[in-house]
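ok so for the tutorial part 2 we go from a plain amino acid sequence to predicted structure tokens. step 1 is just haveing the sequence, like this:
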Amino acid sequence: MIYRSMKRLLPASIILIFFLCLFTRADKSIYATTEGVYAQMKRIIEVLNVINQYYVEDVDIDRLVSGAINGMLEELDPHSVYIEPNRLEKVTETFDGYFFGIGIEFIIQNKILTVVAPIAGTPAERMGIRSGDNIIKIGDEYTYGISEDEVKQKLRGPLNTSVRVTVKRQGSNQPFEITILRGRIPIYSVMTTLMLDRQTGYILLARFSKTTSDEIDDALSKLKSRGMRRLILDIRNNSGGYLDQAVAVVDKFFDGGKNVVSTKGRVDEVNEEFITTYKRNYLKMPLIILINNGSASAAEIVAGAIQDWDRGLIVGEKSFGKGLVQSQIELKDQSAIRLTIARYFTPSGRLIQRNYDKGLADYYLNLDESTQSAVPESTSNANNELYWTHGGRKVYGGGGIQPDVTIKGKSITPFTSKLLSKRMFFEFGSRYASKHRDLARNFYKFKRRFLVDKAVLDEFRSFISAADITIEEEALLKDYDSVCTLLKSEIARNLWDSQKYYEIYINNDQQVQQALKLFPEAAQLAGLRHNER
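step 2 — the prediction. this is what the tokens look like for a chain of 533 residues:
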């Protein structure tokens, strides 16, 4: 029997109002008023009403509408997406650059809330929280089995409010209690800043948030004070962010009047050309930009501008190939859509967007071979349009930024990837550091002399076995250098902090170490004098 109930029919006006929200942007008052759009919305309303009336089970209309929105955006391109209200705050704060809380990087390890590292300069660091600490209670509630979202909900809160935590430290049997006053916690774009040698500065940039330009200024100032005369800017696995921040980063390495990027869309107001300014003296030093297939969007704007103007050497692996510009438009129900409004073009006129006609799975999972390894130019750029840099070098549009010098990243076996995903290296580093606190007396002695020898590796094997993971000796042998580097880096993190983790890890990064040999070429390309010391 088909049961029909008029009470369950949704008023068409309510659904119509909801969908009108999709076509409204408060700051520009854009309304969809054409007859064709209304006709298509009526189809959606009709389908929703039929489902709501006749479907075999009760339906969640909010879920259906969200699905419809996602379906519409998926038909456009891979980067136009719908953001639900419960995700919007998290997505926004990542690029706003801060939140209010105590300031820890954490993981849930075997259902236990574990501190990866306190964030520098935050309340947690000032109160003595260390890497490897287990937070066993928040307030009066035990944290065993807690989810990551619950941790954030309990530890974050209004500025200057307090939260009480109970900490169990490795090597100590007695837990202790700390009351921490919440503060403004930065979400850094610059993950680390260090000198690789007496003259080479290194900056690892993870994203382009609202604070990126200021962070880069601070990093460059710090490195110059330490004697930097050349720079490696590492934007590997940087998936992008704010376009204006990418422009601001490029601006630091040029004099004024240079085109950085152009945006072109269907609406005139999104067509724009971004030009470098005369606000500061540009840095007259050899520059190397490190990229890989995880470098996308704003990261590719930086690499493309540096390459097109022959300002520096692009090194690593081919970038992802995202040449679309999104605008985040908030809706009245506190959700948002991130809509592609333009394509961007590098100074030479290149569009570096990869083809996405084969669908999302192919776009994200089956990257072109040339993004992952060195291939002959005639093969990797066979279907791409030829352009020329300011100095007359060949570059290609479509499919990402091809590096000037290709250096493959070191790959690891699925077994070592599994150990990473299960956080075996971090947890072992925490335990090892707690038993060898004497190593923390001198970092530079640790960096030069500490070796992950047979005794340490045997202890790691025992640790893996105790976690009910079957050891694959052939994989460990193949990944020997990577395993040793990861173990030493995690021990350093737990003895000191994340900065020391990067100092150890980067020192053994083959792409970075090979890039160091390329500064004479980078200087020659930019027309700069280069002196080795």
